[in-house]
Each structure stands twice: as structure tokens, then as C-alpha cells.
Specification:
- By secondary structure, the protein is of the alpha+beta class.
- 38% of the residues lie in helices and 12% in strands.
- The chain folds into four domains: 78 residues, Phosphorylase Kinase, domain 1 (2-Layer Sandwich), CATH 3.30.200; 176 residues, Transferase(Phosphotransferase), domain 1 (Orthogonal Bundle); 102 residues, Methane Monooxygenase Hydroxylase, Chain G, domain 1, CATH 1.20.58; 145 residues, no CATH class.
- The strands form six sheets. A five-stranded antiparallel β-sheet has the order 1-2-3-5-4, with helices on one face. A three-stranded antiparallel β-sheet has the order 14-15-16, with no helix packed on it. It has a two-stranded antiparallel sheet with strand order 6-9.
- Helix 3 runs antiparallel to helix 5 and helix 9 packs antiparallel against helix 10.
- It is globular and about 80 Å long.
Length: 517
């Protein structure tokens, strides 16, 4: 085992051409580091120059998505580079485990790579050896990417001619192999190959020999085609085609890459995401009060997308939980506003202050919102819930009573001056029902729930009324459980809280569709 002065070596992480990489820690510290041990005797003159260049470049770099060099030292036999430790291994290993990645995860990874490249571009640095083996993951669960191994990196502002070929052939831009020209966009070709491999589980060349690979790199007229077996979004496909143009002048440049719709750097997780969200969510109610509903809706969507980015960026579990509460609150407002826009569009009610009702949809990042925290008790819609309970495991409809409620279906509810009956105009049936405003909602007893039902085929509202009517009889449990009495009571109380939350959300939705006069 190699001994590094001032460090305790624990295990071997990997081997390279000129040495090994070990996991270790500084003496007297518990923080893990990666130690790159390079044998001096194996270094050629060019390799020595590359090592000096790598150390000088790493000393100048500090970015969340670039592996940080903490220190370097040497002795008679080795040069030691101490780097931050990334516990998730490299992207190549991750791909072997997963085979292919979901497009949303690929988009998130690509955003991180784009941020790293944007930082390198600002310093005129070209990596020249981008490949999955040189992209490290901070962890297996919820990983973040970091660029590593800057041994071939160079400072290049414009196209340069080199007497040597740098990089890995499988990810190398054709102009480097064919002509020895190094263009700043050569890194973008490598990104295109990596993107293809992440989505389809193989490189565009498939299983191929070195000689066949060289032939394909020389064949400038051969366009790289996407497999028809795996469907990807149009922006993603357009990005791959733009990156894998053999002619560097036709390939996407860095500015086009950073501004591409699939990359969507504006919504990439960052320290500024929460501030961006707050700005949009503060503006949305102001626009709504002015009657600019479409603009308010768009602001809510932007705010939610930035909240999603802030959630993905934030490492603290406590702060994540606070962001989830915000997301839940504003998601309800957004859905309510969306339903209002749809109602106005359906009834052809327009005003001079309202633009054409074509609200846009949530960004693809916001599709996988984290499971929201649901309010335990229901209060007026103008007030915030005081307590929260997580219902991430089961949907609220899971807790509806499963037995038939025929003997309770005739339950009556008192009329309210704020309630009225709505008859759908586009239906020939007699399905009508009474809705209620949120400020009519109370959770004390069924007498205070203004839910009236004339004809409900689904029976959902009937079940709701039946459920609330049985809450007055504390000796009768509408659910059947197995286990100890304490467990029954705990689960029963949880179901009660969940159902209050369900009715509250239903009130908000119904009130937004059919507002009181």
C-alpha cells in the first residue's frame, strides 16, 4: 500500500495509465478525499507537461460541478494530487448499473455539465477528454455531476492546430482525428456522444472495432441517426442532432448550447433558484388582482419551476420540507387559476384586458414534483393550515369508505346563501350539484358542510357526506383495521385528517370552477 505523507490511505478506487487513485483522509480528520498517485518513472516528457498543465488549471478552478483540487505534493517516486471525494463513482459505472437513463434525469445531468462548461468557457478552457469515465457522481442517490481529469485540457480561444491527438477516440470530434484541428466546440461533440449514450444505452457507433471506428470518423458525409425504438422529446432530439454535426461550423456553438430549450439553464438548480421563485410568486397575485389572469398563471408556473429547482438544489432536509409546503400552497393556487381560465374559455367570456386564453403548461422539471405535504385540518381558504401531515404513500382517495352507503345516500344538507345549483350546458343529462365557497367550510360536524347532491353517479360526494355524518358517532369506526387498539386509533385519526384535507382541496377546486355570485 502506498504511503502518502500526512494522509491515511483506506482503499484503492481505480487505476490509470500513470498510477492509481485511492480513497483516504487527512491525518486527524474524518473527511474523505481522493488521492491520485502518479509514478514519476512512467511519465514521458509530454505526460510531464500534461501533469503540470493539469495542476495549474485545477488550481484556478472552483465550481460546484468541477472536482476541486485540495492540495498536491510529491516525493522521490510519486506526485500526489489530493482531490475532493465523490462517493457515487463515475458516470460510466452508473450507466452500467442503469443501462439507460430517463430523459428528465438526463436533462438534469446535462444542465450540470452545461454549467461547468459555461464556467470553463469563461476562462477559455477546453477539456478535450470529456467521457463518462471523467464525469464523477457525488452519490448514487440524488447524484450531482462533477467534471474531473483535466490532463488534456488546454486554453484555446480559437481553432488551433496541434501535432498530437488528445482525447478518447470513441468520444473524439472528427476534426481532431482527421485533421488535428482543435476547435472550442470539440467538447460539444463529446457532450453529444455522452447524451446519446445516456438515453440509448450505447454510443452512436455501437459495438465496433477501432479500425471501423476510425472509418466512421473519416466518413464526413455519414449522418448519425437516432434509434426508433426509444422515443425522446423533440427538443432533446434536436439537441443531439445539433451537437453531432461533423462540420464544426455547422455544429451548435457554446451560446446556442447554453440557450437551448432542452438545457433550460434558467431553471437549473442553483443558489439563486429560491430568490427567482419568490420574485415570480410575489408578482402573480398582483397580476391576478388586476384581472390579468393569463399573465398571473404564467408567473405561478415560473415560480413553481424555480421552486422545483430550489428543491433539487437544497441539501438540507428541513429546508426541503419548507419548500415542499410552498410548492403545495402555490400549486393549489395555480390549479385553481387554470380551472378559472378554462371555465372562462368554455363560456366564451372575454374582456379587453384579457389576452387569448392559451395558458402554457408546467415545465418538464415540474412534472415530478415531490409529494406535497397535505394540511391536517380545513380552514377558510384565506387562512393557512396550522399543521401538516405527509400523505406521500397513498392518495387521498385511498381513504374513502369502501362499503356502499345506500342507507345514508338520502342525507340532506342545509342550504346556504352562498350556494347555487349549476346545470352543465354541454350535457343532456340531469346531473347537477350544489357547490360551496371555501369560507363556508367547517370541520366540526356534517351540519356545517354545505355539500348538496341532486344526482352523483360516481357517489363521491355521497361518500363524503356519509363519512362526515359518522364522525359524530365516535363509537362507530367506518374503517376496518387489524392490530392493536392503539394502532387502530392512530390510523383512524390519520385518515380523518387526510379526509379533511381532501374535502378542503375539493372545495377549492369546485369553488374555482363554479364561483358564487
Amino acid at each position: 500500500m502506498i504511503k502518502v505523507p500526512g494522509f491515511v490511505i483506506s482503499q484503492l478506487l481505480g487505476r490509470g495509465t500513470y498510477g492509481q487513485v485511492y480513497m483516504g483522509r487527512k491525518s486527524g480528520s474524518s473527511k474523505l478525499v481522493a488521492i491520485k498517485c502518479i509514478m514519476k518513472l512512467k511519465l514521458s516528457n509530454q505526460a510531464r507537461d500534461n501533469l503540470v498543465s493539469e495542476i495549474s488549471i485545477l488550481k484556478a478552478l472552483e465550481h460546484p460541478h468541477i472536482v476541486r483540487m485540495l492540495d498536491f505534493t510529491w516525493d522521490a517516486s510519486f506526485v500526489y494530487i489530493i482531490m475532493e471525494f465523490c462517493g457515487g463513482g463515475d458516470l460510466s459505472r452508473f450507466l452500467r448499473l442503469k443501462r439507460r437513463l430517463d430523459e428528465l434525469l438526463v436533462q438534469r445531468f446535462l444542465q450540470q455539465l452545461a454549467l461547468a462548461l459555461q464556467y470553463l468557457k469563461s476562462k477559455n478552457i477546453v477539456h478535450m477528454d470529456l467521457k463518462p469515465q471523467n464525469i464523477l457522481l457525488t452519490s448514487i442517490n440524488n447524484p450531482s455531476l462533477k467534471l474531473a481529469d483535466f490532463g488534456f485540457a488546454q486554453c484555446i480561444k480559437e481553432t488551433a492546430k496541434k501535432n498530437e491527438v488528445r482525447g478518447t477516440l470513441l468520444y473524439m470530434a472528427p476534426e481532431i482525428f482527421c485533421e488535428g484541428f482543435y476547435h472550442p466546440s470539440c467538447d460539444l461533440w463529446s457532450i453529444g456522444i455522452i447524451l446519446y449514450e445516456c438515453l440509448f444505452g450505447t454510443t452512436p457507433y455501437g459495438q465496433i472495432t477501432i479500425e471501423k471506428l476510425k472509418e466512421k470518423l473519416v466518413a464526413m458525409d455519414e449522418e448519425i441517426k437516432l434509434p426508433s425504438t426509444n422515443e425522446i422529446s423533440k427538443p432533446c432530439a434536436a439537441l443531439i442532432h445539433g451537437l453531432l454535426k461533423r462540420n464544426p461550423s455547422e455544429r451548435l456553438n457554446h451560446e446556442q448550447f447554453f440557450s437551448h430549450p432542452f438545457i433550460d439553464l434558467d431553471h437549473a438548480p442553483s443558489a439563486q433558484s429560491l430568490d427567482k421563485a419568490a420574485e415570480y410568486l410575489k408578482r402573480a397575485p398582483q397580476l391576478e388582482s388586476l384581472g390579468k389572469l393569463c399573465e398571473a398563471y404564467d408567473c405561478y408556473l415560473e415560480g413553481l419551476n424555480h421552486l422545483m429547482a430550489a428543491y433539487n438544489y437544497e441539501p438540507s432536509r428541513f429546508k426541503k420540507s419548507q419548500i415542499r409546503i410552498l410548492m403545495k400552497d402555490h400549486l393549489l393556487k395555480t390549479e385553481s387559476l387554470k380551472l378559472e381560465l378554462c371555465r372562462l374559455s368554455h363560456t366564451d367570456v372575454t374582456s379587453s384586458s384579457s389576452p387569448q386564453l392559451e395558458p402554457k403548461t408546467l415545465n418538464s422539471q415540474a412534472v415530478n414534483l415531490p409529494d406535497p405535504i397535505v394540511p391536517v385540518k380545513c380552514y377558510d381558504v384565506s387562512r393557512q393550515p396550522k399543521k401538516n401531515a405527509d400523505s406521500s404513500k397513498k392518495g387521498l382517495f385511498h381513504y374513502l369508505p369502501k362499503e356502499k352507503d345506500d342507507h345514508q345516500s338520502s342525507l340532506k344538507s342545509k342550504s346556504s346563501p352562498t350556494s347555487e345549483t349549476y346545470q352543465p350546458q354541454d350535457s343532456g343529462t340531469s346531473d347537477n350539484f350544489t357547490y360551496f365557497r371555501g369560507d363556508c367550510l367547517s370541520t366540526d360536524s356534517v351540519e356545517q358542510i354545505n355539500v348538496c347532491l341532486s344526482s352523483d353517479k360516481a357517489g363521491i360526494l355521497t361518500r363524503i357526506k356519509h363519512w362526515f355524518s359518522r364522525q359524530n358517532d365516535k363509537t362507530e369506526n367506518p374503517y376496518e383495521y387489524s392490530g392493536k387498539a392503539s394502532k387502530k386509533k392512530k390510523e383512524y385519526e390519520k385518515n380523518e385528517s387526510e379526509f379533511y384535507a381532501f374535502v378542503f382541496n375539493l372545495c377549492v377546486i369546485l369553488n374555482s370552477i363554479y364561483p358564487s355570485k
